[in-house]
C-alpha cells in the first residue's frame, strides 16, 4: 500500500467526523509486515561472515493452460501466496499449452540455473510422464521434477472446505447419511495410473466426509459425472454433491458443476493449502537423492 493510500485512509471521516485511525494503523501494520518480510528474505541470503549465500533453486510452477481467463488469474494468485509463504524463493510460471509463458520459454529464461518443476496436475498421466520431462530434458537449466500434487491430505482438506463453502453440512442423522453422497469430478486421463490416483483421493475424501465418494471424469475416462450421479441415486442417495477436483475454473469444471443435482463446490483454486502443498512438493523433491533424467524415446 502506498503512502498516498495511507493518507486517504486516515483522512476519511467516520460518523461523528473522526478520522479512521484504526484503518491507518491496520494499513501501517500491513506495510511494516511486508517490509519486514522483504528485509528478512534478503538477510537470509547473507551468511554470518557477510558473504552472499547462493539463491535456492527456483520453483517453476507448471500449469496446464486454459482458454478461460479465470484460470490464469487463479494461478497468478496462487503464485502470490507461494511468494508470501517463502520470501526469497524465486518463483516462476510455465504452461504446457494455451497460455504464456510456455514452459520451454520459462526454462530458457533460467539459463543454466537450478530449478524444481512442480506441476499443478493432480494425478499421474501423459503430461506428468511425457510433456514435462521432455521440456526439462532439452532445457539448459539443471532441473528436478516433482511428482503430481495428488493424492495428498492437503488436497482432501481443500476439497472439504470448498464443499463446506458451497453448503455441505455433515449429515444430522443416520437416515440423512444414507441419503448423502459425493461425486469427485476430475479431468480424466487414458493413463490407468491417473484413475488410481483419483480413486485414492476419493477414498480419502469419503473418510473425511463419512459418505460414499465416487470418482467421475470430464473426459477420456468413465464414468462421467452424470453417470456417477445416477449410480448414487440408484442406491437411494438423493443428497448428492459434486466436488470439483480441478485446480482452476475452466470448461471442465463448469460442465461438471452443471451436472450437480444439489450443490457443486468451486475448484481448488488459490486455497492456502494449495500453496503449502506446492512448497511441500518442492521441498520433498530437493530432499530426495538426485537421479539422472531418463533417456527419452526417439520419435
From TrEMBL:
Name of the protein described by the UniProt record: Sirohydrochlorin chelatase
Domain of life: Bacteria
Gene3D superfamilies, alphabetized: 3.40.50.1400
Family matches, as Pfam families: CbiX
Region span, Disordered: 1-23
Species: Streptomyces phaeochromogenes
InterPro entries noted in UniProt: CbiX-like, Sirohydro_Cobaltochel/CbiX
Record keywords, A-Z: Lyase, Metal-binding
Amino acid at each position: 500500500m502506498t503512502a498516498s493510500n495511507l493518507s486517504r485512509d486516515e483522512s476519511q471521516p467516520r460518523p461523528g467526523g473522526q478520522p479512521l485511525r484504526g484503518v491507518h494503523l491496520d494499513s501501517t501494520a500491513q506495510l511494516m509486515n511486508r517490509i519486514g518480510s522483504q528485509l528478512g528474505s534478503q538477510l537470509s541470503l547473507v551468511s554470518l561472515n557477510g558473504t552472499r549465500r547462493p539463491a535456492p533453486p527456483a520453483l517453476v510452477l507448471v500449469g496446464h493452460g486454459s482458454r478461460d481467463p479465470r484460470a490464469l488469474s487463479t494461478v497468478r494468485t496462487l503464485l502470490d501466496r507461494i511468494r508470501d509463504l517463502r520470501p526469497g524463493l524465486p518463483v516462476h510460471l510455465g504452461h504446457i499449452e494455451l497460455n504464456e509463458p510456455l514452459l520451454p520459454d520459462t526454462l530458457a529464461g533460467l539459463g543454466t540455473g537450478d530449478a524444481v518443476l512442480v506441476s499443478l496436475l493432480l494425478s499421474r498421466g501423459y503430461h506428468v510422464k511425457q510433456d514435462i520431462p521432455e521440456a526439462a530434458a532439452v532445457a539448459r537449466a539443471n532441473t528436478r521434477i516433482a511428482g503430481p500434487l495428488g493424492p495428498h491430505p492437503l488436497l482432501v482438506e481443500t476439497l472439504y472446505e470448498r464443499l463446506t463453502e458451497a453448503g455441505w453440512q455433515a449429515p444430522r442423522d443416520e437416515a440423512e447419511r444414507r441419503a448423502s453422497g459425493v461425486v469427485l469430478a476430475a479431468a480424466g486421463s487414458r493413463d490407468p495410473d491417473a484413475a488410481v490416483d483419483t480413486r485414492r483421493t476419493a477414498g480419502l475424501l469419503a473418510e473425511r466426509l463419512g459418505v460414499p465418494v465416487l470418482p467421475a471424469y470430464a473426459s477420456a475416462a468413465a464414468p462421467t459425472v452424470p453417470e456417477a450421479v445416477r449410480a448414487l441415486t440408484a442406491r437411494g442417495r438423493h443428497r448428492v454433491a459434486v466436488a470439483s477436483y480441478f485446480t482452476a475454473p475452466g470448461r471442465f469444471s463448469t460442465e461438471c458443476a452443471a451436472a450437480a443435482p444439489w450443490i457443486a463446490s468451486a475448484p481448488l483454486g488459490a486455497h492456502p493449502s494449495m500453496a503449502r502443498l506446492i512448497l511441500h512438493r518442492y521441498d520433498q523433491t530437493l530432499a530426495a537423492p538426485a537421479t539422472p533424467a531418463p533417456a527419452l524415446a526417439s520419435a
